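Could someone model adenosine monophosphate with this protein?
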Amino acid sequence: MANGVTDWLWEAACACPAKTAFSDSSETVTYWELARQAASAAKKIRRMLDGEKRLPVGVLIGRNAASVTAFLAVAAAGCFYVPLDPSLPEKRLRDILGVVKPRLILDASGKVPAAVQGYAVAPLSELTGGEAEYPADAGIMDSDPLYCIFTSGSTGIPKGVLISHRSVINMARAFSTVLPIDESSVFGNQAPFDFDVSVKDIYLTLYHRARTVILEKSLFSIPKRLMEVLNRERVNTLVWSVSAMKILSALRTFRSAYPEHARLIMFSGEALPARILGEWQDVLPDAQYVNLYGPTEITCNCAYYRVNRRFADGEPIPVGKPFDNMNVFLLSPGGESPVTQPGEVGEICVTGAGLALGYYAEPEKTARAFVTNPLTKGWDERMYRTGDLAKYDADGNLVFVGRADSQVKYMGFRIELGEIETAAQSVPFVQSACCLFDERREELWLFYQADGQNDAALLAALREKLPSHMIPRRVRYFEILPQNRTGKPDRGLLRQTYLT
Ligand code: AMP
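Reply:
Sure, complex below.
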């Protein structure tokens, strides 16, 4: 029984030392090397933090195996890692660092952004040399935090979801009891390491002593090269975001090539249109397709649906049933009564071993989202309210219906529209702002009221605060924004006038 995910690494290093664990476009690392590097870096991290454990350590990430080494080194030091994308706008990185206040940041990217000035930054490559000492980790408990991944926050500051070793161990076990993953699995990692989709690539690989090929981002705009890499590396397992699945079909990739070895294709993050699933099924009819559902707060996924047929255009693909050791059920939206009748809509609520420890250093936000299960009498059972609406189909599968709030998914990214509004309203000449998402055209709209029209200045200011996927495609100026009876921007009217 593992207490920490690093146990899997030390065991794999002994069981299959020469096997490749992770590779990227320029480096390949075996299990032995990964363990040696992680263990020797862990020793130095411990020294740099005066032996203190359970502290946040930032990791400047790239699309590389070094990022994984850094994560495992931090874990082995008894601390938890916070993946930091160095290409984020300075303001956003500063916001994240302002919440986390790390005493140490490891650089696995080779790009040190201005936002980390004033923090202690150590290049990972300077820590990984020398022989490792075993046992290499610092007495980890499974309830200790392993990582903190930041997601969009409606109040303008991203929220850091803090996940324990126990939750990741639970995820790896739960996936492995129902899905065909083993030591012959070769994962094609698509998701960036600051996204929880990538958590599955990393830890299912370690758990099974499998192999992950880290795919360069640019490959997803050159499908021919992407297919060459997938086929050369004999990638057989995909854990991809729905947006990546969509990109390949939009680029008409399959006319010339397809991932010949793919046998297990898992997708998540938003609803995959049946038409796109059908295009994948046409070229890879024997592959097992799995719809995975869940927010970062419950550790990757809490429900899954094994696709066992073709779906008609427009027919929703269910998100299915709970994974082992997780309870997923519906409550009346915002209320406390269970929803059990097929077709009746409720809010998806989750209990069980995957629940996050909370939002790091955000007790109020944590208390709002992680509440007591109203259905459990006699003790306090923690429950996460997802804000997602769903219903049961006739077979008892959950079917995703939509969101109860203004969180949207755009290009695979989770975005709180409120975060864009807050950023716009912080621009000095803007008085009020309202953001809407056009699902059909997949476009973000920003409506703003200001002293005068200056779309270019507003967009320039937003680019300094928000990542590129949060910059609205369409901007409309108003002398006075239309308001509803409560004095708030009239979202319904704006949607009806501009988005339909
Ligand atoms: P994230 O925390 O970035 O993984 O985003 C989680 C949110 O993405 C969920 O709360 C849902 O709104 C949405 N989501 C995740 N998986 C699915 C799925 N399979 N089908 C529909 N929506 C999904």
